[in-house]
Write a structure and sequence with these properties.
By secondary structure, the protein is α+β, with helices and mostly antiparallel strands. It has helices at residues 3-16, 20-26, 31-39, 58-70, 75-81, 84-87, 89-94, 97-108, 225-261, 273-301, 308-333, 343-351, 361-373, and strands at residues 114-117, 133-137, 140-151, 158-164, 175-181, 187-192, 203-214, 218-219, 263-264, 267-268. A four-stranded mixed β-sheet has the order 1-4-5-8. Strand 2 and strand 3 form a beta hairpin. The radius of gyration is 21 Å and the shape is globular. The termini are far apart. Bound molecules: flavin-adenine dinucleotide. The site of flavin-adenine dinucleotide has 22 residues, from strand 1, strand 3 and helix 13.
């Protein structure tokens, strides 16, 4: 095992596994966890040193994600602790020194928590038609609207927010990104949302009523928000695919151990051919999905261009594999797999979001179909 995996495994076993059940009940992870992870350099992995990161590539951040789940963590924990993975990339890509100093460095140091708010109550898939408006007033934008399903939204210090700076109906060309401090007057957390899974990750509905945001908090140029969002969806989707594969791998391991231990009708489950074949299928779909997903991560890390079609294929492949495996894992655990204190039960619930968040299975298929069928 390499040093990074070893570090993540020790951190997970010491800091996460004993506390995860409490955090699931509390509906959030404590802020101290961010500070502890930052101290070990885990939050900054995959980010350039010039912005306060620890360097490394997508392969390193994928390794952190994977090992955290393999060591007994969860995708929900990753959503909560690594929300900056979706909140920061747009800011970093602009190279805006003031925004980087104010938001990126303290977040990678575990001092601030950031969220990304795109989805609105009227729709998440149709990003080009979002309705939260930002109107210029002197040196400020005045923001009005609402967002929903925002990961870490209840704990966030700042929110990278997709707003409409163009006229109503201006489509994707009228979308911009603004960083909004959650202490600003008019910002509110309207509701903490209760969910099927990812229970240690707080998810919020947010409202913006005449929120005044300095124009200097614009991320990149006005009207480029949609393009920025689409560009950075690639890393979010690969990360979710890595989480799905790791969740599947963890469930394969847990289920093999369970089937070795459990005997019925005078024989161990693992000795029955129907069970062995089920385990073989679980391992096969997991290995094949992981190979494709990690080959894309490897290419991205080497500076190769991967297409949105390939990324969408990776996400959907990982989601299908994970859905199959978590279901089979619960089945093979029998009644124990249905209980709250069984790890496979948590993975089963957590996995359901993978085909919804970061672009649904259907939207991924739209991307694949467009790329393939509209080309000729
Ligand atoms: C736990 C959780 C955390 C989340 N975290 C965040 C976050 O941090 N930030 C954020 O901005 N968002 C977040 N989301 C929102 C998530 O990205 C959206 O839920 C997702 O994009 C889908 O949008 P929607 O829920 O509005 O569904 P809709 O867009 O209303 O879609 C509903 C259904 O219709 C299908 N559909 C939509 N359009 C088409 C089409 N053209 N063709 C075929 N089928 C279609 C969809 O695939 C889906 O099955 C989170 C969601 C959850 C549940």
């Amino acid at each position: 095992m390499n040093d990074l995996r070893e570090l993540v495994r020790r951190f997970t076993e010491r800091e996460i596994v004993p506390n995860l059940p409490d955090w699931e009940r509390a509906g959030e992870v404590p802020r101290e966890l961010h500070a502890k992870a930052a101290k070990l350099g885990l939050l900054g992995i995959g980010y350039p040193e010039e912005v306060g990161g620890g360097g490394g590539t997508l392969l390193d951040s994928a390794t952190v994600t994977e090992e955290l789940i393999l060591a007994g963590g969860s995708s929900g924990l990753i959503a909560a602790l690594f929300t900056h993975g979706i909140a920061l990339p747009h800011i970093i890509a602009t190279g805006d020194a003031a925004l980087i100093d104010r938001y990126v460095r303290p977040t990678l140091a575990g001092e601030l928590i950031g969220s990304l708010a795109i989805t609105e109550p009227d729709g998440g898939s149709d990003v080009a038609n979002l309705r939260t408006v930002a109107k210029v007033d002197g040196q400020h934008y005045v923001v009005n609207g609402s967002k929903t399903f925002i990961t870490s939204g209840a704990r966030a210090d700042f929110i990278t927010t997709a707003v409409r700076t163009g006229e109503p109906g201006s489509g994707y060309g009228g979308v911009s990104l603004l960083v909004i401090d959650t202490t600003t007057d008019g910002f509110g957390v309207t509701r903490r949302l209760e969910k099927m899974g990812w229970q240690c990750s707080d998810t919020a509905e947010l409202s913006f009523v005449d929120v005044r945001v300095p124009r200097s908090n614009l991320v990149g140029a006005e009207g480029t928000g949609f393009r920025q969002i689409m560009r950075h969806f690639a890393s979010e989707r690969i990360s979710m695919a890595v989480q799905a594969c790791a969740t599947a791998q963890r469930c394969v391991t847990l289920t093999i151990a369970w089937c070795r231990d459990r005997s019925t009708f005078g024989a161990r489950l693992i000795d029955r051919q129907v069970v062995r074949h089920r385990l073989a299928e679980m391992a096969r779909v997991t290995a094949v999905a992981r190979t494709y997903v990690w080959s894309l991560a490897d290419r991205i890390a080497s500076g190769d261009k991967v297409s949105p079609v390939e990324v969408a294929m990776a996400k959907n492949t990982a989601v299908v594999a994970c859905d199959y495996v978590v279901d089979a894992a619960v089945q093979l655990h029998g009644g124990a797999g249905y209980l709250r204190d069984s790890e496979v039960e948590r993975h089963y619930r957590d996995a359901r979001i993978m085909g919804i968040g970061g672009g649904t299975v259907e939207i991924m298929n739209e991307i694949i179909a467009k790329g393939l069928l509209d080309a000729g």
